What does this fold into?
Amino acid sequence: MSLTFFPPPLQQINSEIARRAGVELYVLRLDLMHPWVNGNKWFKLKYNLLKAKEKNFTTLLTFGGAYSNHIYATAAAGNLFGFRTIGVIRGEERLPLNPTLTFAVQQGMQLVYLNREMYRQRNTPVLEEYLRQRFGEVFIIPEGGSNLNGVRGCTEIIDRAMPKAGYAYAFDRICVACGTATTLAGIALSLHEKQRAIAFPVLKNGAFLAQEIESLLTNYLASDLPAPYSSPASWELVCDYHFGGYAKVNNELLVFSQQFTQEHRVPLDYVYTAKMFYGVMDLLKQGFFSKGDSLLLVHTGGLQGKSA
It folds into this structure.
């Protein structure tokens, strides 16, 4: 497995819908950074891995569902950078393993299953202590990499992933799918005050994420971690494109994803990016964006989920 990470290309989308709306549309292809550790998952893992090395941990322990992009990426990153990995999986073991968990095991990850009641306690000191007693000294990464180290990595998505000086400021709106809100928080901290971040929650009733975002932003700015700006840029949640909830898909979304991929050569995953791209294209039709706006859509990877 290669240690080489490639700068993510910027791809313009020549869409008749965008042209009619008077908007320029670009995609930041984080999915092309690495075959297995790509998308926003790499940015959320980066400083967690560095902190684990700094503190001389040899084992990473993290959490996720049976189809988790985060479990997949953590298993691969652990193998790449010399960590033992443990994945705490929500629910009961189901055999044969799906492609996501099969890959994790192939990368050397030990899978441990918790019933849903215990899994809900994953962020509590009681469960963390139980896991440390069972597995010894482990470096615990929250589900989805959702901690301040994860936010720190996501502050680098826009500027460091697009090294041309000042080019990132050419975008008026930056759009991203939203699960734990970590990526949105990091992006908001990295934007100029005239820019705006727009997040598309993939969970039903995703408005609750506003509180999570505010908490992440407040705690990050109160920490000693570096921040590109002293305050975050403006941001908003667009909660109308969850298609029934997390990992829920209908025929309309499937058809859209297939047609978009055919027309623009940008593969989409159904859990995250397809919902965000669908939402952006629908809002363009509605005149949601101002004429002359330049939009950057962040492709957060997760394409292995399509084989699940």
Residues 18 and 284 are 6 Å apart (CA to CA). The mean pLDDT is 93. Residues 39-54 form the longest helix (16 residues).
